[in-house]
Amino acid sequence: MRLRHLDGLRGLACLQVMLLHVFSAFFPALVFGPLQPAGVLRYGLRALFMFSYNGFVGVFIFFYISGYVLTRVYEASSATIGREIAARVLRLWLPTTIFGLWSAALFLVFPTSHIQLGTLTHNLWIVQNWAVDPHLAAMTADIFIRPIFLGYHGAPITQILPDLDHLLIRKVTTLNLPVHTMSAELQGSALVLALTRLRRSALSLWAMAIVAAILLLPLWYVLFCIGHLCATLRLGERDWRANTRAMSGLAVPCIILGILFAWPLMGALLQMIGAGLFFVGVLISVPCRRFLSHRWLLRLGDLSFTLYLLHWALLFGPGAWLALHLIPLLGFTGARIAAALCVLLGAPALAWRLIGIDRWAVALSRRVKQAGSSRRTAWNPAPT
Question: Which range among 85-89, 260-264, 309-313 shows the weakest confidence by mean pLDDT?
């Protein structure tokens, strides 16, 4: 069984991330401008609009989805823990590394276009990001080692091991900023694996471990735990159609509060809670499931990981270069609109051509996991 609505939700979350970066680069007033509209109605409308490009919430939703889907994957597998971890490392490392090479190639071709554009448009955000150390050793580490195995300055693991933080570089100096979440994704995957195996063997210990994880671990890891709990309760798989009205009475407040809590001024904690409420609301809402199962959203979900990894360098390299060269023809506003549209349309088209990389990584990881093991149940998850 494959939960199609989670594929669609993953696609929308990826779109949130990409829109945040495109707007920050070309229309910074939308992201960094005044955030205090007068009146309840204006607040609600602005919150809904900002939710559509709140990439931070999109990342949080990714983690909730991973907690859910990986729980099902690990429940259905009889592979050893070592094989599970090796398969997960391979699944994340291969695409991240390949698109790290892609980012390095674009940086070498367009090393200063984003700086020139930011200087002309007085956009400090685009000037400060993609501040890559061009030395071979630094770029090699940033492509092959840091994203998955170390992370970057301020990574969740540094809240547990604070002495590690001074060894990590800042996110703005990375070749491909979205990969700063990959180390947390790997660590969260290991956490879900441990919880799933513990539940299989000792239910009481599993319950205590869940409580301890939620109370003691950094918040990013808690999101995986919540996704794991939702999977344990089968929230995304239950047939709610017999109780559509009652469940809608729960889902609608969850979704509305989730959108309102996504307001940037709320801070990271409330945004995480908002993303969680939105996630649960989608799981128990029959109309939301139906909407998220539309064909175009499923296609976007299939492209999501590839799109997540390739859009940053496309934006800062060719996107910034195009905007610079269109300014004499279209003016500042026209050039930025044209460049933004090219990135927003070009990135999915390119991701569609390069999706084979992601599928190859998924196939290899499954081979590693299935060697010498057998499936417990028929579960066909979306790649995550």
Answer: 260-264
Measured CA to CA in angstroms, residue 191 lies from 75, 85, 205 at distances of 14, 11, 14
**Residue 378 above 50 pLDDT?**
no
DSSP one-letter string for 313-329 = HHIIIIIHHHHHHHHHH
136-159 burial code (b ≥16 CB/10 A, e <16): eeebebbbeebbbebbbbebbbbe
Residues 223-278 have pLDDT tens digits of: 999 999 999 999 999 888 777 777 888 999 999 999 988 776 678 899 999 999 99
54 Rama class: left (phi>0) / alpha (psi -120 to 50) / beta: beta
Whole-angstrom distance, CA of residue 46 vs CA of residue 260: 9
Q: What are phi and psi of 77, to 5 degrees?
A: -110, 145
β-bridge mates for residue 77, sequence order: 375
In this structure, which amino acid lies at residue 125? W
**Beta carbons within 10 angstroms of residue 216's beta carbon:** 10
Q: Say if CB 96 and CB 358 are below 8 A apart.
A: no
Tokens of 203: 């239910």
DSSP lists the bridge partners of residue 375 as: 77
The residues, ordered by sequence, that sit 6+ positions from 247 with a Cβ below 8 Å of its Cβ are: 240, 284, 285, 286
Confidence of residue 149 (pLDDT cuts 50, 70, 90): very high
Supply 129's token pair: 């990001």
Rounded CA-CA distance 264/115 in Å is: 26
Amino acid at 350: L
d(CA 62, CA 184): 11
- Mean pLDDT across the chain, nearest whole number? 91
Residues 6+ apart with CB under 8 A from 108: none
> What gap in Å lies between CA 228 and CA 248, rounded to an integer?
22
- CA 164/CA 160 separation, integer angstroms: 9
Q: Which amino acid is at 274?
A: G
For residue 377, pLDDT over 50 is answered with: no
CA distance linking residue 286 with residue 248, whole number of Å: 8
The pLDDT score that the predictor gives to residue 114 is 96
* Rounded CA separation 178/92 (Å): 13
Could you give the CA distance from residue 19 to residue 1 in angstroms, rounded to a whole number? 31
Local structure of residue 77 (DSSP, 8 states): B
129 alpha carbon, distance to own chain's centre: 19
